[in-house]
Amino acid sequence: MHRRNVKIIVVDGNDVLVDDDDYLFLINCFNLRMEGVYVQCTPKKQYKKMGLRANSLQKLLVLPEKLGRNIVVDHIDGNESNNQKSNLRICTHPENMKNRKKNKTYANRKPTSKYKGVYWYKANQCWLARLNVDNKNVTVGCFSNEIAAASAYNLYAKKYHGEFAKLNDLEKLEMSENEFEIHRMAKNKSSQYIGVCFVDDRWVAQICHKGKNMRIGGFHTEIEAAEAYNNKALELKGEKAKLNMIHA
C-alpha cells in the first residue's frame, strides 16, 4: 500500500497533520483557523466564487462534495490534529461518541478515576465500571480495584462498541476476565449492581427519585433485584436511566 507523505500546517500555533497531496490545496484555497480542537476552513474570496464552501477540515478532506452538517467524521486515533485521510472515517454521531476521550470534568467536578468508564461509587465504597450501550448508561459492575474496573470497561467496550471502542491504556496492568472477576465486590458486603443491596437475607432493590429513596421490593436473587431496578429506572427516568448490565 502506498503511504502518503505527511505535511504540517501551523494553525493558530497548533501543528496540524495532513497528507502531502492535500497540503497545497488547503493553504492555497482556504483560510484556516482553530475553533476549539477542530480546524475550520473558509475558502478564499476567489475560490468561494468557484463554489468552495466553509466547513471543518476533516469533512472537507473526506467528503468534499458533501459538506452537510449531518455528516460526522471521526478521528480514529482520537487526535483531532491528525487529519491524514488514513486517520479519518465516516460514522454516525453515536459511533463518534464511543470514540471520545474521558471527560476531564463532570458536573464541574474532577473525575474520581483517570480511566474512562470508571467512577468511585461512594455509597458502596467500590469502583464502578459503566458504559453507554444504545444511548443508555449501563453498569458493568462494582469492583474493589480501580484497575479491575478499567479492565472490565475495556472488555465490554470491545464487545459493544467494536472498532469505535476507546479503550483505557493499561499496558501491563491489563487484567484478564478471570482476574478482574476476582475483584468484584463480594455479595456479603455489597452488590455488583446499582440500586441493589443485601438486607436480612434478601436482595433489596431501591432507587433514588426526585431526591427520595424509593424501595422497589425484596427478592430471592441478586439478578431479580437488578432487573427490578432496571425496570423501575426505565419507568421513572426513561432514556436517562442508568441501567445495570445483568450477568446471567
TrEMBL record:
rRNA-binding in keyword set: no
SUPFAM superfamilies referenced in this protein's UniProt entry, alphabetically: DNA-binding domain (SSF54171), His-Me finger endonucleases (SSF54060)
InterPro entries associated with the record: AP2/ERF_dom, AP2/ERF_dom_sf, DNA-bd_dom_sf, His-Me_finger_sf, HNH_nuc
Stored SMART domains: AP2 (SM00380)
Gene Ontology molecular function: DNA binding; DNA-binding transcription factor activity
Residue ranges constituting the AP2/ERF domain according to the UniProt record: 114-170, 182-246
Alphabetical keyword list: DNA-binding, Transcription, Transcription regulation
Pfam family, one: HNH_3
Protein name, UniProt field: AP2/ERF domain-containing protein
Organism: Paenibacillus ferrarius
Upper lineage: Bacteria, Bacillati, Bacillota, Bacilli, Bacillales
